[in-house]
Amino acid sequence: GWLHKEVKNNPKMSSLKLKKRWFVLTHNSLDYYKSSEKNALKLGTLVLNSLCSVVPPDEKIFKETGYWNVTVYGRKHCYRLYTKLLNEATRWSSAIQNVIDTKAPIDTPTQQLIQDIKENCLNADVVEQIYKRNPILRYTHHPLHSPLLPLPYGDINLNCKFSNSYTTLQDEAIKIFNSLQQLESMSDPIPIIQGILQTGHDLRPLRDELYCQLIKQTSKVPNPGSVGNLYSWQILTCMSCTFLPSRSILKYLKFHLKR
């Protein structure tokens, strides 16, 4: 059906710029075309998987713009869609969410390896081999380019009032890992430690990721007596007193502490 799609504006322009496009929802993607004709030019595709998210219509935006909005977040793109009719916006929002709900959960290599460790936890030799063969489980001084766990796409809930300004869960995960790596060279680590704990306190979906990053950075550390390693253990201790991970990551944490 026909919907209006927001066009990326010049940052200096505050007005909403929309273009009318023909949208088609398939079992795997949300596509849009220049027109509804059979051989119309396809202008874009947003591939749908289990990490995509849909923000349903918001009355506040209707009052500001005169349009009901639906926002769809994918891995690479975000479509901001508008219609004059609330029931149309609601139908699109529900239909897109239904497609997302049919998708199998995405597993990352870290998740698969945690499962391998869980299955072999009684065999110390096999566990050591898993750690030896998979650098993703061990300490690194290299930056992290993507989160260790699957995190939903999209802006962090804009309605929540946080003392810090957050962007996406993916960005925040990378920022936390960068902060952990800075600890080694900091004369006063307290602001960084407070920032990491505050992020974990504010962003519940990020807590498992935060635990996995700290377990990684305290595994097979080249210099166990380093000040950075001490700080990492102190953060892990503070987190354990403040917020716990999910059940599966809690088992992984206990196994890590026993090792």
TrEMBL record:
Gene3D superfamilies listed in its UniProt record: MyTH4 domain, Pleckstrin-homology domain (PH domain)/Phosphotyrosine-binding domain (PTB)
Pfam families recorded: MyTH4, PH
InterPro entries, alphabetized: Actin_motor_Myosin, MyTH4_dom, MyTH4_dom_sf, PH-like_dom_sf, PH_domain
GO terms assigned for molecular function: actin filament binding; phosphatidylinositol-3,4,5-trisphosphate binding; plus-end directed microfilament motor activity
Domain PH, chain residue ranges per copy: 1-101
BP GO annotations: cytoskeleton-dependent intracellular transport; regulation of cell shape; regulation of filopodium assembly
PANTHER family in UniProt: AGAP003327-PA, UNCONVENTIONAL MYOSIN-X
The name this protein goes by in its record: MYO10 protein
Organism per entry: Tichodroma muraria
Origin organism lineage: Eukaryota, Metazoa, Chordata, Craniata, Vertebrata
